[in-house]
Write a structure and sequence with these properties.
The complex is a heterodimer of chains A (69) and B (512). Chain A has 69 residues and is α+β, with helices and mostly antiparallel strands. Chain A is built from two helices and five strands, in the order E-E-H-H-E-E-E. Chain B is of the alpha/beta class and 512 residues long. The termini of chain B are far apart. Classes of the chains: A alpha+beta (69), B alpha/beta (512). Strand 4 of chain A pairs antiparallel with strand 13 of chain B.
Chain lengths: 69, 512
């Protein structure tokens, strides 16, 4: 059996920590980091730690790193 | 004699060329999609952007690629819920599409549970392909794996879904199920399958970081076809001896992985994403018909009556004062979350509903965003700050103006921003600054949207202090149901009530 999953996850957007409720998505991380509008306009995109673009409804995981550029 | 030997040798060579032993040097093609979420029609990611995706166009591409070499078509989860095209039919529209496209296998994603177990079982029964979930205990309809024979090569496909699924959907939708360790499950089935299959694929809804971690820890996986994180992996990644792929989202791309198998192992792997740019005339006609048929049915479904209101439900004034619609929605939220207070931004309500029957389309217009309800513990002081923010731009009728349930407050808009809120009562008692209260809101505000930074501040630091605390037991988060949209909660309420007639109650009063 796995231990209970944490309720609040910390992820990083452009290396700044963002704490979100488990189940929130890339979109919520950008809301918290105040970067959603730029991405929705198409001015910038979101990438994971390996340089792959990710969608706004992509799932998060604890300690995940996102980069908006 | 010489002739006989030559003839015999020729026969041996011919036999080897066609026998399964000639699997070495064999070409295989894996086509894959993930996180389709019912986006059957082409769509624009942003208003002035190009049209992308469209299942009829993706299907045409699949057909063309299938003609070139033996192929499997796989789905890495989160297929049946998301867009209205899927939601209004509880995912059965998607299954009909996938049956027509002859998918070979699918892994269950966390969103496949959102319609409840009864519907999921019906979905699995309707699917003409196996739906997998090796690490889900308690749902026998989900198979752990399937073995396919492709061009003489036995390929085992093991399905794994994120063990965080219970946090991502309604608990009652996964009642009685256990989500086991993907790593231990993978090892178990690889051990069972290694002598029965020549290639092992994990069809994964774990997310790309978890796929990489799985490949680090578990040997024997040839390919991980992934989903969940909506990752646009343009080229396959490789961790140790495992190839990892993922095809973005919403049918905007079709993943293509070409494998060559030689001397008992994969000697060559080439992959790419084929982006789907719909061009009229290039769609698969059979799939196009299915998409169009459900599109037409949608209009009928949206006309369905879910309840009746004996008064106009006012959203027009939700950005400047208490409205009966705001009262109704926040009451539903408070009841649903079982908390003391509910608060949303008036901007959540986008359209009033006139007196009379309430149709599904009315709710989709009134609550167009896919928000869901969350609840946190806030101190009285934090609630006061939240209300101050809510009334800070009332002159501009900004969307942040609050609608509330379980509390009443007065405010003076003539006073400076930050000092406008006068008295706050919760449950009839004057608010106590240091007391904690349970407050429901929507996910947008909880993430700090609309400038509601108090909710953000409540979560800040929680991750450090209680990494293993279960929801509602000592932590700040008391409720979160990503799998149940606020709109659907309102719909359920109206269907249960039949008739509503919410009246203003004086929850928000402007004073001098």
């Amino acid at each position: 059996m796995l231990p209970p999953a944490p309720t609040v996850w910390r992820v990083y957007v452009n290396q700044e920590p963002v704490d979100l409720i488990a189940g929130m998505t890339v979109r919520h991380a950008l809301i918290s980091a105040r970067l959603l509008e730029e991405v929705e306009r198409g001015d910038r995109r979101v990438y994971d730690a390996w340089g792959n673009e990710v969608g706004l409804e992509g799932a998060l995981a604890p300690e995940m790193k996102l980069y908006v550029k | 004699m010489k002739r006989t030997i030559i003839t015999l040798l020729s026969l041996v060579i011919l036999f080897l060329a066609v026998s399964p032993l000639a699997a070495d040097g064999t070409s295989l093609r894996i086509l894959y999609v993930n996180d389709f979420h019912g986006y059957a029609e082409p769509y624009k990611a942003k208003g002035d952007g190009p049209l992308q995706g469209g299942m009829a166009y993706l299907a045409a591409q699949v057909q063309q690629l299938r003609r070139e070499r033996p192929t499997l078509l796989l789905a890495a989860g989160d297929m049946i819920r998301g867009d209205t095209w899927a939601n209004l039919f509880q995912g059965f529209s998607v299954i009909e599409l996938m049956n027509a496209m002859k998918f070979d296998a699918m892994v269950v994603g966390n969103h496949e549970f959102d319609y409840g177990l009864k519907v999921l079982k019906e979905i699995i029964a309707k699917a003409k392909f196996p739906i997998l979930g090796a690490n889900v205990a308690g749902l026998p309809a989900l198979k752990p794996y399937v073995i396919k024979n492709l061009n003489g090569v036995k390929i085992a496909i093991i399905g794994l879904v994120t063990p965080k699924t219970p946090k991502l959907t309604n608990p009652k939708d996964v009642q009685g199920l256990k989500f086991l360790s993907p790593e231990m499950t993978a090892r178990k089935y690889i051990q069972q399958l290694k002598n029965r299959a020549e290639v092992i694929i994990v069809l994964s809804h774990l997310g790309y970081p978890a796929d990489r971690a799985l490949a680090e820890k578990v040997t024997g996986i040839d390919v991980i076809v992934g989903g969940h994180t909506h990752t646009r992996l343009e080229k396959p990644a490789r961790v140790n001896n495992t190839i990892i792929v993922q095809a973005w989202e919403y049918g905007k791309a079709l993943g293509v992985l070409d494998l060559t198998r030689k001397d008992g192992k994969i000697s060559l792997a080439e992959g790419r994403l084929e982006e789907i740019h719909p061009k009229p005339g290039e769609e698969d006609p059979a799939i196009s018909k299915i998409v169009a048929r459900y599109q037409q049915k949608m209009d009928g479904v949206l006309q369905q009556v879910v309840g009746e209101t004996e008064v106009d439900l006012d959203a027009d004034n939700a950005r400047s004062r208490e409205t009966n619609f705001g009262d109704l929605v926040t009451d539903i939220m408070r009841q649903r979350a079982g908390v003391e207070v509910a608060l949303i931004n008036g901007g959540t309500l986008r359209r009033s509903i006139p007196r009379g029957p309430i149709r599904k389309k009315d709710l989709y217009s009134a609550l167009p965003f896919d928000n869901y309800v969350v609840a946190l513990k806030l101190t009285g002081k934090q609630i006061q700050e939240t209300l101050e923010h809510g009334v800070s731009a009332v002159e501009q009728k900004a969307g942040r103006f609050p609608q509330v349930s379980g509390l009443t407050f007065t405010y003076n808009p003539a006073l400076p921003v930050g000092s406008r809120v006068k008295e706050v009562f919760i449950g009839g008692q004057l608010l106590k600054p240091d007391q904690e209260y349970t407050v429901a809101t929507n996910d947008y505000l909880a993430a700090g949207g609309g400038g509601y930074t108090v909710f953000k501040a409540v979560l800040q630091g929680e991750a450090d202090y209680q990494p293993q605390v279960e929801m509602g037991k000592g932590g700040k988060v008391v409720y979160s149901k990503p799998g149940k949209l606020l709109r659907d909660a309102v719909m359920d309420f109206l269907q249960a009530q039949g008739k509503v007639a919410p009246a203003l109650e004086g929850r928000i009063k402007e004073v001098d």
